[in-house]
C-alpha cells in the first residue's frame, strides 16, 4: 500500500518548486519534508526527485505524481457521496497548465461560473501552448491546454478550437520601418517581439511569407506586456485577435498584411481516471470554448 503522506510530500515539493515552500504548505518543517522524500525513495528503491533548482521528478517520480493527481480527484467524488469523509470542508484545488494568451483572454470567462458552482479553486501553471503538455507528463497538473493533439499515456484530449493571431504593429513603427510599404524581406530585418524561446509564431509567419532563418527580436514573457510593447513601437508581433479588438478599432495597432493570420489549435488534455470534477470541467469546456475560439480549418 502507498503511504500518501509520503506522496503528498513529493507532490508539494514539485508543485511548490522547492522543499521550503512545500514545508510551509503542508505545515511541516523542511527537514520533515526531506525525511519523507528519503523514506519514499527507500521504499521504491530509487530516486523520485532530481535535486536541482527547482526540483524535478524522475521517471518513477512522474508516475507517482500522476497517481497522486488522480487519487485527489477520485477522493473528491467519494467525499461528495460520503460527506463525513470531508474533514476540512475546503474546496478542491485543481492544477491546470495553460498558455498565457488563453489566460489573458478567454479562460476566465469560460471557467468562472463553473468554478463558482463546483466550489473549486484553480492552481494555474502558465506554459507556452507548444510545451504545456510536459507538465502533465511530469505529473504536475491534472489537465492542460496546449497545441498538441496527442495525449500522454493515461490521458485524453479534445479539440477546443483555435486561437487566431494577427501580425500587428503601431502606426509609428510602420511609418518608421516601412516608408515604401511592407514586404517579407524588410519585415525580417525589423525588430520583432517574441514571447519566449518556445514561441515560434513569428517564425511561422515569416516562413509563410517565404523567409527562413533568424531575425532580430525582443523577448517579452508577458501577454499584457507584449501588447504594451507593440503599442509602444518596440517591434511587431503575432497577437491574439481576442486581446486587441479595442486597439484595432482605435487604430493604436495596425495589421501588417491584411487577413494574413495564423490559427493555433488548442486541445484540452485530461486524465482518463480524473473523477467527476475533471469530467464535468471537460464537458463544460467542450460546450463553451466555441464562444471565443475559431473552428480549426
From TrEMBL:
Coiled coil stretches, renumbered: none
UniProt keyword Transcription regulation present: yes
Segments forming domain HTH lysR-type: 2-58
Record-linked PROSITE patterns: HTH_LYSR
Family matches, as InterPro entries: ArgP, ArgP_gammaproteobact, LTTR, LysR_HTH_N, LysR_subst-bd, WH-like_DNA-bd_sf, WH_DNA-bd_sf
Keywords carried by this UniProt record: DNA-binding, Transcription, Transcription regulation
Domain of life, source organism: Bacteria
Gene Ontology MF: a single term: DNA-binding transcription factor activity
Subunit-structure text: Homodimer.
Alphabetized HAMAP family for the sequence: HTH_type_ArgP (MF_00513)
Family that this chain belongs to: Belongs to the LysR transcriptional regulatory family.
Function in brief: Controls the transcription of genes involved in arginine and lysine metabolism.
Protein's recorded name: HTH-type transcriptional regulator ArgP
Organism: Pseudomonas batumici
Amino acid at each position: 500500500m502507498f503511504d500518501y503522506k509520503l506522496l503528498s510530500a513529493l507532490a508539494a515539493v514539485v508543485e511548490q518548486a522547492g522543499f521550503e515552500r512545500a514545508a510551509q504548505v503542508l505545515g511541516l518543517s523542511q527537514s520533515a519534508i526531506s525525511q519523507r522524500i528519503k523514506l519514499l525513495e527507500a521504499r521504491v528503491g530509487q530516486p523520485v526527485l532530481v535535486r536541482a533548482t527547482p526540483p524535478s521528478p524522475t521517471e518513477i517520480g512522474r508516475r507517482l505524481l500522476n497517481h497522486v493527481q488522480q487519487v485527489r480527484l477520485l477522493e473528491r467524488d467519494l467525499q461528495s457521496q460520503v460527506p463525513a469523509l470531508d474533514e476540512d470542508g475546503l474546496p478542491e484545488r485543481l492544477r491546470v497548465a495553460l498558455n498565457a494568451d488563453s489566460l489573458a483572454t478567454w479562460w476566465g470567462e469560460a471557467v468562472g461560473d463553473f468554478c463558482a458552482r463546483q466550489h473549486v479553486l484553480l492552481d494555474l501553471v502558465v506554459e507556452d501552448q507548444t510545451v504545456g503538455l510536459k507538465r502533465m507528463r511530469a505529473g504536475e497538473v491534472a489537465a492542460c491546454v496546449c497545441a498538441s493533439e496527442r495525449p500522454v499515456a493515461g490521458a485524453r484530449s479534445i479539440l477546443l478550437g483555435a486561437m487566431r493571431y494577427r501580425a500587428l504593429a503601431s502606426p509609428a513603427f510602420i511609418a518608421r520601418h516601412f516608408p515604401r510599404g511592407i514586404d517579407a524581406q524588410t519585415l525580417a530585418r525589423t525588430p520583432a517581439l517574441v514571447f519566449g524561446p518556445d514561441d515560434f509564431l513569428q517564425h511561422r509567419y515569416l516562413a509563410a511569407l517565404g523567409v527562413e532563418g533568424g531575425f532580430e527580436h525582443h523577448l517579452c514573457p508577458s501577454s499584457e506586456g507584449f501588447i504594451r510593447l507593440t503599442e509602444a513601437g518596440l517591434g511587431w508581433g503575432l497577437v491574439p485577435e481576442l486581446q486587441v479588438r479595442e486597439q484595432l478599432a482605435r487604430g493604436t495597432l495596425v495589421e501588417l498584411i491584411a487577413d494574413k493570420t495564423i490559427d493555433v489549435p488548442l486541445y484540452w488534455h485530461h486524465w482518463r481516471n480524473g473523477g467527476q470534477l475533471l469530467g464535468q470541467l471537460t464537458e463544460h469546456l467542450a460546450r463553451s470554448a466555441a464562444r471565443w475560439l475559431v473552428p480549426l480549418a
